[in-house]
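Summary of Year 1 activities. Much of the first year was spent building the evaluation harness for sequence design. The harness presents a backbone, in tokenized form, and records the residue chosen at every position. We chose the following record to illustrate the format because it has been used consistently in internal testing since the harness was completed.
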């Protein structure tokens, strides 16, 4: 009986084994929930598996004084289907990445330079905060709201990895105030008054 169970488990595991080493994204094809289709192996080169953009500082001359340089599947076709990607985070003094979420991935942040105050909010509304210094790592579970703030007087740099080739991104402030979400509904759902909502929409470019 045991040998039958062993053979059955072996057959089951073999039937689900990967028959391809990789699936480099064909970025000219559609981006589906299952990812991109595979580029023809004859057209794959080593350049598909290398990304050099993380060595260059991002432009932090913006309203949040921060920049994220992504190495997601759209920039790095070799990660397609591998459940992994990366990014560089640059924070100028007083820079902040506002509360945001990655619907498709957990995030691991590694501080390369400076100090970063980082945290996330659990689904039970517990808050987990830490000021991270060079060499520290913090994890942000998938789908939870989290943020990063420069906690020092000089620039801060971090390298981030994700558990998806395309982690997705939704920034809470932009979702509320940078689009045409009607102001009366924003006020109802956030308990902010009309003047506050209009002020924030004016800053972030929203209408309605």
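For this record, the design step produced the sequence shown next.
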């Amino acid at each position: 009986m045991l040998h039958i169970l062993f053979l059955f488990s072996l057959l089951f595991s073999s039937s689900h084994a990967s028959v391809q080493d990789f699936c480099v994204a064909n970025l000219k094809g559609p981006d589906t929930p299952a990812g991109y289709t595979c580029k023809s192996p004859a057209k794959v080169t080593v350049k598909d598996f290398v990304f050099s953009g993380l060595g260059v500082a991002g432009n932090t001359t913006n309203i949040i004084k921060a920049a994220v340089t992504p190495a997601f599947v759209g920039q790095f076709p070799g990660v397609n289907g591998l459940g992994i990607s990366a990014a560089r985070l640059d924070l100028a003094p007083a820079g902040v990445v506002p509360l945001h979420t990655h619907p498709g991935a957990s995030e691991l942040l590694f501080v390369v330079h400076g100090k970063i105050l980082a945290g996330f909010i659990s689904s039970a509304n517990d808050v987990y905060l830490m000021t991270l210094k060079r060499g520290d790592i913090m994890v942000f579970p998938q789908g939870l709201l989290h943020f990063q703030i420069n906690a020092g007087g000089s620039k801060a740099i971090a390298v981030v990895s994700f558990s998806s080739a395309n982690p997705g991104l939704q920034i809470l402030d932009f979702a509320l105030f940078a689009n045409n979400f009607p102001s009366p509904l924003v006020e109802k759902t956030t308990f902010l008054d009309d003047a506050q909502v209009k002020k924030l929409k004016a800053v972030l470019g929203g209408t309605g």
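DSSP finds four helices and twelve strands in the chain. Quantitative recovery figures across the full test set are reported in Table 2.
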